[in-house]
Amino acid sequence: MKTIYFLSASMLVLLACISLSACAQTGSTAPATMPVSPEVSTDQSVVHKTDAEWKKQLSNEQYYVLREKGTEAPYSGKLLLNKEKGIYKCAACGNELFSDDMKFDSHCGWPSFDREIAGGKIKTVEDNSHGMQRTEIMCARCGGHLGHLFNDGPTETGMRYCVNSLSLEFVNQKDLPATAGKAVIPATDTITLGGGCFWCVEAVYEMLDGVKSVESGFSGGTTVKPSYADVCTGSTGHAEVVQLVYDPAVTSLDEILKVFFTVHDPTTLNRQGADVGTQYRSVIFYRNDAQRNTAKSIIDALNKDDVYGKPVVTQLDAFKAFYKAEDYHQDYYNQNKSEPYCRMVIQPKIEKFEKLFKDRLKKM
Ligand SMILES: [Zn+2]
């Protein structure tokens, strides 16, 4: 079973004082993938600099945190209490990471955010240093250390991005160029879908033009970092899901959901064919009102036109966390085409998809 660590705020401060080298905001273990807000886009070209170049650019304190994975003293950061409207960028490379509406007062001594700006700007790495099990967060563009990610956040996302002030540069809304902020069309968006066995759904979306990545995993349950075996018991509450990152300029949530309702049966409660259990439920985990409204209008239209001859039972749930499944579940169909399940269950779904969406397949 999983070990979950909980510490009170006062214990956290104490721990931080004892060991400032460990970003000491120990909460429950965080997932490998985290909620994002589909709002702002920036150039994602990777920044490579030598240590000497970073030393020249950054202050000593910034270098210690960003390049040597140090931690500033709790309650010492200049952005801890900042409530101004604006964007928080990586202090090393300017990558736009968070906006003011994502910040909340966590009382942990470091600036905290409940989600990140969309587009894969932040990468996560397992961090087992200092005798703790944590998820480190780094700027995906320059590799700068930001802090840690915990799944004990108090808002709807359940996430707490605990970030050093020294890793961030704040740009006030009034100083932002007109192109920055929420009006910008995101470069990518993310949706998490449960349509029965994730091997099937993943195989289909890997072929849809505009889908940049597909990961198989688990969502909607209570267990932190569940294994496939945990989820198969049906007791964790998780559904098998795929998480898609897509380019809204090439495909759309509307199209993605039309594929979703084509390749699985949304009328069978907690069941897809021979796969039975709540882990096989039909569910859409939305990240914002726009996603929820799009999904709801499609479901309403399917029911109104009685497309399936039965009501759609697909659940609409607010996204909280996604846990990537074990490596052998990723790209399962393509790695195991000769397996009977792939030939008999997945192959017919792919053929149906290829026929109906033949103009929308990725150019191989
Ligand atoms: Zn950076």
Q: Would you mind describing this structure in some detail?
A:
The chain is α+β, with helices and mostly antiparallel strands and 364 residues long. The protein has two domains: 9-175, Beta Complex (Metal Binding Protein, Guanine Nucleotide Exchange Factor, Chain A), CATH 2.170.150; 189-359, Peptide Methionine Sulfoxide Reductase, Chain A (2-Layer Sandwich), CATH 3.30.1060. Helices cover 23% and strands 23% of the residues. It is built from nine helices and 19 strands. The protein has helices at residues 9-18, 51-57, 60-66, 198-205, 228-232, 253-263, 289-304, 332-335, 340-356, and strands at 36-37, 86-90, 96-99, 103-104, 112-113, 116-117, 122-127, 134-139, 145-150, 160-163, 168-172, 189-195, 211-219, 239-246, 271-272, 275-276, 282-286, 315-318, 322-324. The protein has a six-stranded antiparallel β-sheet with strand order 4-5-10-9-8-7, with no helix packed on it. It has a six-stranded mixed β-sheet with strand order 18-17-12-14-13-19, with helices on one face. β15 (271-272) and β16 form a beta hairpin. α4 crosses α6 and α6 (253-263) packs across α7 (289-304). The radius of gyration is 22 Å and the shape is elongated. The two termini are 43 Å apart. The model is unreliable at 1-27 and 37-44 (pLDDT under 50). Residues 90, 92-93, 95, 139, 141-142, 144 line the site of zinc ion.
Helix-strand layout with pairing:
Blueprint: H1 9-18, E1 36-37, H2 51-57, H3 60-66, E2 86-90, E3 96-99, E4 103-104, E5 112-113, E6 116-117, E7 122-127, E8 134-139, E9 145-150, E10 160-163, E11 168-172, E12 189-195, H4 198-205, E13 211-219, H5 228-232, E14 239-246, H6 253-263, E15 271-272, E16 275-276, E17 282-286, H7 289-304, E18 315-318, E19 322-324, H8 332-335, H9 340-356
Parallel strand pairs: 1-6, 17-18
Antiparallel strand pairs: 2-3, 2-11, 4-5, 5-10, 7-8, 8-9, 9-10, 12-14, 12-17, 13-14, 13-19, 15-16
